[in-house]
Amino acid sequence: MPKDHGIGASSKRREDVRFLTGKGRYTDDINIRGQAYVHFLRSDVAHGKINGLDTSAAESAPGVLRVFTGADFEGVGGLPCGWQVTDREGNPMQEPAHPVLAQGKVRHVGDPIAAVVAETYEQARDAAEQITVDIEELPAVMDMKAALKPDAPKVHEDLTSNLCYDWGFVEENREATNAAFEKAHHVTTLELVNQRLVANPMEPRVAIGDYAAHSDESTLYTTSQNPHVIRLLMGAFVLGIPEHKLRVVAPDVGGGFGSKIFHYAEEAFCTFAAKALKRPVKWVSSRSEAFLSDAQGRDHVTRIELALDAEGHFQALRTETYANMGAYLSTFSTSVPTWLHGTLMAGNYRTPLIYVNVKAVFTNTVPVDAYRGAGRPEATFQLERVIDKAAREMGIDPVELRRRNFVTEFPYATPVAVEYDTGDYNATLDRALEMADWDGFEARAAESAKKGLWRGRGINSYIEACGIAPSQLVGQLGARAGLYESATVRVNATGGLVVMTGSHSHGQGHETAFPQVIADMIGIDESQVEIVHGDTANTPMGMGTYGSRSIAVGGSAMVRAAEKVIAKAKKIAAHLMEAAPEDVELKDGQFSVAGTDKSIAWGDVTLAAYVPHNYPLDEIEPGLEETAFYDPSNFTYPAGAYVCEVEVDPETGKVRVDRFAAADDFGNVVNPMIVEGQVHGGLAQGIGQALLEGCTYDETGQLLSASYMDYAMPRADDLPSFQVDHSCQTPCTHNPLGVKGCGEAGAIGSPPALVNAVVDALQRGGKDVTHIDMPLSPARVWAAMQ
Amino acid sequence: MYDFELVKPKSVDEAVSALAAEDAQPLGGGQTLIPTMKQRLAAPAVLVSTHDIDGMKGVSTDGGVMTVGGATTHGTVAKEAASAFPGLAGLAAKIGDPAVRNRGTIGGSLANNDPAACYPAALLAAGGTVVTNAREIAADDFFEGMFTTALEEGELITVVKFNIPEKSNYQKFEQPASRFPLVGVFVAKHSDEVRVGVTGASEDGVFRWTEAEQALSSNFSAEAISGLTVSADGMIGDLHGTPDYRAHLVKVMTGRAVSAAE
Asked: Would you indicate the residue range of the signal peptide (chain B) (predicted)?
């Protein structure tokens, strides 16, 4: 019998009422009296030297308040990078300056050169057309391997080359790994591209800067996944505003998928300009601007080699990856191809030796940073593709080859620095195969053949590291931030609660799921709990939402704060019932004394906390409000198995996904319906990457896929009806809820399953195709068949 | 978008005189023009909307000819042409999405002559006439290459006449992002000939595949074209398909249209 409330119940998402009826309050819904509008003049060339910039005509255009250029920001800091990676020699990465507005050079199409602030948006845009920019175009640095040649033009003149870092992991394992390859019975090699993607959240970015002269306080309203992080980065590193004079508000946010983690130039600009002009300054990204200014995702070129013994046991794994950073280092860009990627190369398997080499490269493209999964999809894709190829080469069933190498005993310390606490990879694989009717494939293939179509099937078994992260560990690895989470639980006099969380909901459903936890702990109705997030003025310092961390880290902080509240409430209840606090129990909203019939309601105790007439004031303070900071002791390790079945039209190369089964182990699940929705969304994005999406530049650095006319987003009719299951649950052992996180799984696990299925279909159709790079567009699949 | 003046005439005559203004341009459903203006890539001073000209709307059939008003929306064609000319109705029913079909017009589509528009393939294959305020232009003389037609400045498509084929079908292979045709083929079997209109494929815009027409005129079956090849010369190559791929799809889609023709 499914639960109807509390943990485990599919409570309906309370936030959806306002989202679906147009009553959400997004950043663009905020308009401040007297606000002005900014339009950014962006570079239309990928690489060039700014020899001259004439803004005089724009400055006298109607409605213009001021035109800003890079010169206005010379005394201001640049956009910082939040993670320092150390290279194979022990040296820090090369870290170029990232000015708010271009200074002397432009480095990608879309790089902001000037900003026009005017009374209306149209006036700002009109005036921007009157700015004359004299740009001496330089050769664009586009191909990563060419960028590393000694004579390549440099994206940043003050760096020694276009190489950000050359990272080896685990460097001490390199020789042993190479030696294992020398002895291997079989080596499978695969070269592949994990293509660049554009995040495309439904809501484009928006920023509004506001300055209160009477208090010298700045406020930034912004579309962010982590307002406190923006406050810290922008205040401390860019504008020099102390945190007590800076408030960052991220109200309803319409999706992020990683692209709204980072601190962007437009945020700093609006905050800076508002103070300079003593006027609120608003920027709303157009969809076209989003393609040129939102950090993009993935863009890895990889060679992976897997060494096996005669029975197919994995002996060693070796990879070399070129990771595109784009023109500047976005906030967490450097961590994605390294610590969020190399640490996952063990997958679900007992591979004793692993060596990962990553070369991060600057190019004249939009900066690249975390996108749903961030490093883990790249790891999973190459690993699950090379395993499938190895299975074919060795004549071992791909399911069997995986099972033969699964980690089955926990905890398991991988050779890539992480320790899996729990898991049951056979269980999720069994469940996925069962849901997909794996054994009924041949009959379906025969039906497809009657229609002239080739049917294929593919599997994938993935793991991810979520709930990031232990602060001390990531600090050792180069993170310039802690990765704890915080919560304040405020109980009101009449018993209702407000939870102020440092997590941020931009579609995930915190406002519904978090109260389910509190409701269970106290035994009250979920409706008595309200979640407040997204405003640095009324939530404790938090690190925000990404890496499937909200329930695992933010939820744990909330549990810790609620435990403190309950402990204090028990003391109050004990006083009121004249009992010892250790004898007091809380259940179903009632405090009782063990072994007696004494009881008192939750609401009576909370009232006593704020009306302390009969209260142990000599022992405890009035009030009932507690804050906790939770720093996890390990990552969480969601894992699962996905099965994809496709039909390929051999005449056109068109791929249709016929069925997709996803069996995930997320540990304990707070709200199954929300989890299912998260998996559906992740699958749609992963299938989008595998089948449709691709961000493409030409050799001069112009973005060819710069609108939805050419950038193919997945639509409902591109997707089958998903079969989703999360009944295999091995709870996390180190957080209080036993949860692992579910936000990214679908996007991580689906691309390799789909590509494996298409390769299988082509092989069954008699084509000797071992790999096709994503997206598997009809044209690419057809070309592979020729 | 820059400022512009919007004129909403009630008759063709009023529209034609409004179009005499400097930098005036007709506005059909605006499904191409409005996004282009929003991107500031077009800046007409005056837009002359055909939306309120009742005389330019509707579908009628007389003998073997279907007459469609230039301001008729795709949605209307999809409904009203269904019984007399199912090939055309089927084409119209799959242009864009419902919002596009409820605004976009046949006159706007033909006048714009986007190399990946659907209607030009139907007009070439059906054969027929584009009627303007000034003259009649035979279908074979109307299209002059990508985004180029025989229309003069200020000339307005008032009516489009199609010769209704005995059998016809349109097969669209969609470009994955825009879902415009990567290749679209309209096959029309007339009593005396077969005509094949191909859109989406060529750098010269819509064209007739005459070799297939000849083969199909003597044997209207997919097998009749199995021995033909389409040259990749002059085919469009872009993110979504090479010239070779487009040339290949022309043949595949033609065969499918022949098989599906009704």
From this structure: none
Dihedrals phi, psi of A153, to nearest 5 degrees: -60, 150
Q: Could B178 and A709 be called an inter-chain contact, meaning their C-beta atoms sit closer than 8 Å? A: yes
What's the Rg (C-alpha) of chain A?
Answer: 27
DSSP code, position A234: I
**CATH no. for residue B75?**
3.30.465.10
Whether residue A239 sits in one domain with residue A260: yes
Secondary structure E strands in A177-290: 186-197, 206-212, 217-222, 246-249, 281-284
Q: What is the pLDDT of residues A517-550, one digit of tens each?
A: 999 999 999 999 999 999 999 999 999 999 999 9
Residue B152 has pLDDT above 80, yes or no: yes
Q: What was the pLDDT predicted at B1?
A: 87
Q: Tokens 């007696």 belong to which residue?
A: A596
Q: Tally C-beta pairs within 8 A across A and B.
A: 44
- The 3-state DSSP class for residue A737 equals coil
Nearest-neighbour CA in chain A from B245: distance (Å): 7
Distance of residue A181 Cα from the nearest chain B Cα, in angstroms: 39
What range defines the domain where residue B212 resides? 167-260
Give the pLDDT score at A7.
95
Residue of A nearest to B246 (CA): A779
Contact A711 B177 (CB under 8 A): yes
Q: Is the peptide bond before A616 cis (omega within 30 degrees of 0)?
A: no
How does DSSP classify residue A335? G
Q: φ, ψ for residue A344 (rounded to 5)? A: -105, 5
With b for 16 or more beta-carbon neighbours within 10 A and e for fewer, the B176-210 pattern comes to bbbbbbbbbbbbbbbeeebbbbbbbbbeebbbbbe
Q: Is residue A479 part of a domain?
A: no
User: What pLDDT score was predicted for residue A4?
Assistant: 84
Alpha-carbon distance A17 to A24, whole Å? 9
**pLDDT, position A729:** 97
> Is the pLDDT score of A1 beyond 70?
no
Q: What is the average pLDDT across A448-459?
A: 98
pLDDT at A288 over 90: yes
Average pLDDT over residues B198-212: 97
Question: Would an 8 Å CB–CB cutoff place B104 in contact with chain A?
Answer: no
**B159–chain A nearest CA distance, Å:** 30
Q: Which of B39, B176, B178 lies closest to A777 in CB terms?
A: B176
| Chain B residues in contact with A691 (beta carbon < 8 A) | 176
Mean pLDDT of A246-257: 97
CB contact under 8 A, B39 and A782: no
- Same domain? For B68 and B159 the reply is yes
ipTM above 0.85, yes or no: yes
Whether B86 and B174 share a structural domain: no
pLDDT of residue A476 exceeding 70: yes
> How high is the mean pLDDT of chain B?
97
Angle (nearest 5°) at CA B132 between B130 and B138: 30
Q: Which CATH number fits the domain that encloses residue A671?
A: 3.30.365.10
Residue A24 scores a pLDDT above 90: yes
Structure tokens at B97: 């999405």
The C-alpha atoms of residue A574 and residue A614 are separated, in whole angstroms, by 12
